[in-house]
Amino acid sequence: MAPWGYEKDNGPAHWHKDCPIANGKNQSPIDLINGEVKYDSGLKPLTAKYVPFSDAKFLNNGHSVQFQPSAGNGSELTGGPLAVKYNFEQFHFHWGNNDTEGSEHRVDGKMYPAELHFVHWNSTNPSFKDAVGSGGPNGLAVLGFFLKVGAENAALKPITDLIPKVKDAGTSVTVPSNFDMQAILPATLTDYYTYDGSLTTPPLAECVKWIVFKQPLEVSAAQMEAFRSVINRDGKPMGGNYRPPCPLHDRAVKTSFK
Ligand SMILES: NS(=O)(=O)c1ccc(C(=O)NCc2c(F)c(F)c(F)c(F)c2F)cc1
Ligand SMILES: [Zn+2]
Q1: What would the mean pLDDT of 79-103 be, rounded to a whole number?
Q2: What sequence ranges are listed for the domain Alpha-carbonic anhydrase (predicted)?
Q3: Ligand 2 geometric centre to CA of 78 (Å)
């Protein structure tokens, strides 16, 4: 099989052939249906402490654009539904070729133009790879933020300004050390949906505590257009790099808000 992608011949409908877990009972993304979620007063805000990075790369890996610091930089996530501390690994994006599509999660069937994922791994494991393979939904914690078109996002501007330098698959650039990742996050990480799920790309491991924030972040139309200029490994626009929603089966989606 051609390496997995999002085209007709290698997209989500094909992934089960190499990854049978694609048809599992804890797959992501899902449609977050407000009439079916359950408020949990025990869900406290999350705390993300992101320290400045000495050397981080911004890269085009053929199916997304990704910010990745060198290993072990001391950035941590705690609180919310998490029982232990999680280490920051990377963030990346999913987007569409127009403003009516692009996000992986949906809210009452609505898609946003893009979705930003902050990936963290359970610090009781020796490495990210071990956390992915650790079994159960506590290996990774991924924060999902919807992006909608509006005001320019000054915190993401250093990243969206780098996109033209990673237009082609397999290219990367060094990110200036004064990039402030913390500034991307809202001041308080309060209102979110959370459920047990999976990686949304192969190997689709069911190792993720998903935490999807209710409040979208805004990016400008120009910033959205920057994503749409990125090319995938087949030389086509990367837009459309999102998996459709998967069945919820007998999972509960909890909210930290009423
Ligand atoms: N869209 S998302 O759900 O937020 C998501 C997050 C991370 C990855 C990932 O790291 N993939 C590569 C990758 C693996 F999938 C592994 F299983 C592994 F062990 C790795 F080391 C690795 F880099 C895939 C999807
Ligand atoms: Zn993702």
Answers
A1: 98
A2: 2-257
A3: 20
